[in-house]
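User: Predict structure, ligand zinc ion.
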Amino acid sequence: MKVLCAWCVRDGRPAYLREKSPLDDPSETHGLCGDHFTSLSASVGQVVTSRVWLISRVNDFSWGLTRWAQRMMGRFCSLLVTDIER
Ligand SMILES: [Zn+2]
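Assistant: Predicted complex:
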């Protein structure tokens, strides 16, 4: 079987990578060449990194929001308590 880089086929570049068993089978199968594997794993890594960054920012934000809400609730409750005590 012939192994062709699926991305090179899409880009119209020479896509032949290697032969794969069974060698007497003339059909084609698809893989990724070194260049495209590198660029794909780089873009996947970028997506993962930005997603981790976003999640950590969201965690910071929700943590800050929780702290703020607790402080506001505490203030509100203490106001309520002093009103009741009066
Ligand atoms: Zn390729």
